[in-house]
Amino acid sequence: MTAVDVVDVVAAPAGTIIGRRTGGVRRFLGIPFAEAPVGARRFAAPMPRGRFTQPYDASRHGATSQCVPLFATTTIPEPSVPGDDVLNLGVVAPANGVSCPVLVWIHGGGFLAGSPASPWYDGRAFARDGVVTVTPGYRLGVDGFAPLDGVPPNLGLRDLLLALDWVRENIAAFGGDPGRVTVAGQSAGGGAVLALLSSPLGSGRFHRAVSVSGGFFEVGADAARSFAGRLGDRLGVPPTRDGFGGLTVESVSQGVRLLRSERGDDGPPVLGPVVGDDVLPVPVAEGLAVQGHGVPLLLGATGDEFDGGARGSHNAAARAAGTRVTDILLRAACPRAAASRRDAGAGTWLYSFEWPSPVLGGAVHCADIPFFFDVLDAPGTAEALGTRPPAELATSMHADLAAFVHGRSPAWEPATGRLGDPTREYGRPGATSAADTTGVFDPVVATGSVSAEAC
Description:
The chain has helices at residues 124-128, 141-145, 155-170, 188-198, 221-235, 241-245, 249-263, 284-290, 312-321, 325-331, 333-340, 369-373, 381-385, 391-405, 443-447, and strands spanning 5-12, 15-22, 25-32, 56-57, 88-94, 100-106, 132-136, 176-186, 208-212, 297-302, 348-353, 423-426. The protein is an alpha/beta fold. It has one domain: Alpha/Beta hydrolase fold, catalytic domain (Rossmann fold), CATH 3.40.50. The longest helix has 16 residues, at 155-170. The termini are far apart. Residues 9-308 form the Carboxylesterase type B domain.
């Protein structure tokens, strides 16, 4: 019997919000948490949205910052929704939930693309397990991260901080507990989590953190300005607030895509969090050493990430040389974060996703998300994971993540950033719940530095 979709109404401090309920799952989508970043507000710090004077229709996804996908095809279905009101969020909650823990999920996309409206981020399984899921949008690319004169730095991170403020003020009306908020994300979203955890402005806004295939993705201001200059030349405008402000977000995004394609930029982010302001006063690794020590952190990566499924001795040799983006940007971040937080009392736990997709040729970037969200039936999963992905693996991974959000410590020992740290391995045949990570290459441990070209 099919569950009936019915109207659901919430009276929140933000105003009356009308969503839908299907069975035991409530959905409120596209709720603006800030004024639309258009006109004079396009390159300004986000302004909290005023209280709704009329009931707000939250029955469908709101506009997305992504208007042009970064790639022609992506592993994750990432729909673009037109409109200016891009600083909005979705809430998926259990029916009749009271004081449930909250998962705030930050989408990936290299800080240039991505969509909170992806069906892979649907929180229905978390609602089943007593968790409220929130999926915020944030400004991307030039509008979110270009260091332009007269523009507050790190606007994308400032958007996320404001979204967390909205959660603190409103989530109780949806059955969530504002005192039990876990901020989590994947890829650039995972990097944003680490940046927020290292930021003095993140203090008190969340209580647990999860970084899925994240890393230390801060971009040097000079490198970011250089990219903005090349982009301005490509678009025929000066790389300034007025120059880019005279173009549509779509045309700027299209220019970014074309420039990256022409130059073969498929490595480290070209735009992202910039160090040197009140949001990110020091590099992320340094910030983690002094901030967020009361926040438990779970982080990990997939076994292959961007290796394209290369396995065996050739893959081991590539990792040993430290030449893979997989290791330098993503897998190495796990022991480095644990080392930075060695004195943190809250603990840091590591995992590694090792199940090889028969379609993608390995345990590659993004393949773990449907397992963590337990949405193996979502659109696009068969194309990425095949027709028979292991349901028991989704059950296990989702249960671990849900338990962490509920406030439980993982079943394996915390990490200290040393070789051999215990790590939960998901999906490798014969893997135990706490496996040795000596084989995970860390270029910082091995050489004492990471090349500028790599980062």
